[in-house]
């Protein structure tokens, strides 16, 4: 019995196109390029299904990335265009916009993290250096004008900074009645320890280094600028801490964390061994400024009027002041008291005074302010210093360092000793 023509056609149609009635919604959809001519609706695309093959979805973690979410929102913002535009063209545009945003993001990240001044590959700091091997280990050290910020937090206080070539170190000091009223060094009161004092970490090591450097066998026959005369007799000038650069002085910045009236007299007492050996820079009305291999600067709670100016004029001044750099630039403030007879540094917080520098690039207004402040300090013979400068990312840090050095900053305050050595070496220093 023969099959009716209509039934045969229906059967043949089902065999040749088994997917003709497959739904276009759900988790999987047929390819828009399949032989059936099936298409993907705009609603399917917006729901997260991409054309290009059956079973392909757009719900992976990659599609939740911020730049892809942003691109999808941009593409779907124009309701009229999304309803008329070819779905494949929309997806292509979506992909290209995602690529552009990704490249832009990577470029900004690279500039933010990796923008560096050409760097010098400096030798790693030998942290084994200590009194046992200094000053012999200083023969390969080239001094650079950098200040070791919070130096006492380093693995080897003082010696890590000297090994990097820094010519200034910082110690935060406290007087604590519970710890026998000695000068203890630490970032906070809770961090104070009996074996970490100003004497043990700084005064005694510096005294030992300078005594070794100033033995008859080590003294140079040259006459550096810090030659001094006592009782009308010219004495042999005191050498500094660097064997290859014996005439290079260093600065000990003492940040008083407790009250000046109780802490400053204790600081003066601790400095007496260095004074007796003529190792300190001093000033007196009778003899003026006499440079030494070590200049001590008081900051923090150090009171300028009572501690610096209010001392007995017959006694030499042993501690110099850290003047307020921002105030020097203020034309309404009379700053005639700050000069080379009582101060050495003029400092300010970079973050508070200058602000943030995106990608390490200063705005024109920031540049003008930095130049004014550095010039104001220079006019008084003081060395400008910015603390709280960016320390990370290194591209931002190096960008700020580069501008400050080019503008003539007096001393560069740093946390990363390896970084500053590479930075300075890359400048040909």
Integer-rounded radius of gyration:
35 Å
End-to-end separation:
105 Å
Please indicate the percent range of residues in DSSP E strands (runs of 2 or more). 5-15%
* Helical run tally: 15
Order of helices and strands: HHHHHEHEEHEEEHHEEEHEHEHHEHEH
Instruction: Tell the overall outline.
Output: elongated
Describe this structure in words.
The chain has 15 helices and 13 strands. The protein is α/β, with parallel strands linked by helices and 429 residues long. An 8-stranded parallel beta barrel has the order 1-2-6-9-10-11-12-13, surrounded by 4 helices. It has a two-stranded antiparallel sheet with strand order 4-5. A two-stranded antiparallel sheet has the order 7-8. Helix 14 links the parallel strand 12 and strand 13 (411-414). The longest helix is centred in the first third of the chain and has 28 residues, at 87-114. It is elongated. Mean pLDDT is 78; it is low at 5-29, 31-37, 53-57, 115-128 and 221-234.
In short:
By secondary structure, the protein is an alpha/beta fold. The chain contains 15 helices and 13 strands. 36% of the residues lie in helices and 15% in strands.
What is the element layout, followed by pairings?
Elements: H1 5-16, H2 42-47, H3 66-76, H4 79-84, H5 87-114, E1 144-148, H6 159-164, E2 166-175, E3 183-185, H7 198-213, E4 229-230, E5 233-234, E6 250-256, H8 260-270, H9 272-276, E7 282-284, E8 288-290, E9 294-300, H10 304-309, E10 319-324, H11 325-328, E11 343-349, H12 350-353, H13 364-379, E12 383-387, H14 394-406, E13 411-414, H15 417-426
Parallel strand pairs: 1-2, 1-13, 2-6, 6-9, 9-10, 10-11, 11-12, 12-13
Antiparallel strand pairs: 2-3, 4-5, 7-8
């Amino acid at each position: 019995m023969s099959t009716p023509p209509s039934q045969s056609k229906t059967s043949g149609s089902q065999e040749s196109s088994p997917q003709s009635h497959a739904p276009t919604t759900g988790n999987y959809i047929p390819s828009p390029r399949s032989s059936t001519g099936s298409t993907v609706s705009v609603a399917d695309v917006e729901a997260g299904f991409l054309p290009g093959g059956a079973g392909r979805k757009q719900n992976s973690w990659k599609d939740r990335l911020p730049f892809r979410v942003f691109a999808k929102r941009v593409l779907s913002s124009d309701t009229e265009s999304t309803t008329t535009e070819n779905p494949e063209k929309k997806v292509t545009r979506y992909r290209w916009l995602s690529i552009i945003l990704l490249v832009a993001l990577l470029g900004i990240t690279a500039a933010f993290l990796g923008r560096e001044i050409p760097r010098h590959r400096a030798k790693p700091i030998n942290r084994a250096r200590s009194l046992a091997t200094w000053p012999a280990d200083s023969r390969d050290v080239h001094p650079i004008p950098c200040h070791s910020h919070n130096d006492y937090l380093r693995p080897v206080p003082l010696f890590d900074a000297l090994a990097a070539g820094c010519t200034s170190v910082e110690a935060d000091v406290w007087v604590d009645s519970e710890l026998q009223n000695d000068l203890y060094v630490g970032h906070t009161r809770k961090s104070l320890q009996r074996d970490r004092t100003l004497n043990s970490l700084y005064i005694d090591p510096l005294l030992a280094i300078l005594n070794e450097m100033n033995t008859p066998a080590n003294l140079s026959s040259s006459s550096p600028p810090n030659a001094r005369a006592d009782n009308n007799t010219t004495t042999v000038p005191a050498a500094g801490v660097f064997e290859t650069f014996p005439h290079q002085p260093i600065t000990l910045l003492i940040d008083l964390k407790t009250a000046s009236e109780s802490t400053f007299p204790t600081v003066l007492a601790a400095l007496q061994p260095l004074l007796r050996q003529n190792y300190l820079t001093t000033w007196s009305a009778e003899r003026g400024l006499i440079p030494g291999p070590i200049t001590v600067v008081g900051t923090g709670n150090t009171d300028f009027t009572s501690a610096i100016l209010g001392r007995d004029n017959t006694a030499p001044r042993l501690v110099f002041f850290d003047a307020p750099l921002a105030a020097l630039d203020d034309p309404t403030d009379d700053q005639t008291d700050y000069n080379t007879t009582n101060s050495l540094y003029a400092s300010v917080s970079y973050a508070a005074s200058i602000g943030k520098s995106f990608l390490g690039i200063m705005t024109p207004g920031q540049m003008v302010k930095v130049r004014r402040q550095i010039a104001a300090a220079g006019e008084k013979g003081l060395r400008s210093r910015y603390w709280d400068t960016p320390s990370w990312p290194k591209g931002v840090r190096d960008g700020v360092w580069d501008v400050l050095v080019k503008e003539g900053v007096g001393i560069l305050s740093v946390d990363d000793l390896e970084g500053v050595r590479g930075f300075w070496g890359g400048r040909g220093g």
